[in-house]
Specification:
By secondary structure, the chain is mainly beta. It is built from no helices and 18 strands.
Length: 209
């Protein structure tokens, strides 16, 4: 159950809900943009980071003397309350319960000059759930994609113990990366969507008979 606090300020009634949340987001390595400034390298494979924080929802009603009161929901604000050592910064889009939230400026919360936490406003963001392998190949030979099953035939004598397929997809990334061992049977590849949902593909590679 979410802790609820009701306040009345200047004739407005506010309902504040606090919800502890475990959030995840993609973290990209940085690169020099050519002007000595480090920026995200969106061409690189990201890692997934996670953090526990507290979401604060605040809804306010119109003044009680309003001729047409519309109740709670007239205005809506969402904030993330962070620990003092949080690695979350401005511009991160994290996922909670399948929804995306983008962070704004991160302010430090202090008492007697000591930082005890941080706070950032959030903006809801629509994230894509696309996570399909659209093409797969080795050399000049294209694989056959049937649902989430992929079959690839390679020339006889090909070393199946260290084979790197070229995979095209419409997600954010896939794993595992690099050469894989197909000599003992199929390998499972996972495609990650922008909303951090995943889809598994079973890839089988065999030699020509």
């Amino acid at each position: 159950m979410n802790p609820i606090v009701e306040q009345v300020r200047n004739g407005f009634k506010s309902t504040i809900l606090h919800n502890v949340a475990f959030v995840r987001w993609y973290s990209y390595p940085t690169k020099d943009n050519g002007n000595g400034v480090l920026v995200e390298n969106r061409d690189a494979t990201p890692t997934i980071k996670a953090e526990l924080l507290r979401l604060t929802h605040e809804q306010s009603s119109v003044p009680s003397n309003s001729p047409s009161p519309v109740g709670l929901g007239t205005s809506f604000s969402m904030f993330a309350e962070l620990t003092y050592d949080s690695v979350i910064t401005e511009g991160i889009t994290f996922v909670f319960n399948g929804e995306g939230w983008r962070t704004g400026p991160v302010d430090q919360l202090k008492t007697q000059g000591m930082t005890y936490g941080k706070r950032t406003p959030l903006t809801k963001t629509v994230l894509s759930a696309d996570k399909n392998i659209t093409a797969c190949s080795f050399g000049t030979e294209d694989a056959i994609i049937t649902g989430t099953s992929i079959s690839q035939v390679v020339e006889a004598g090909t070393d199946l113990s260290s084979l790197e397929l070229v995979i095209e997809h419409n997600g954010v990334m896939f794993s595992p990366q690099g050469a894989q061992d197909f000599s003992d049977g199929p390998v499972t590849f996972t495609v990650y969507a922008e909303d951090l949902s995943t889809k598994d593909y079973i890839v089988t590679v065999t030699e020509e008979v």
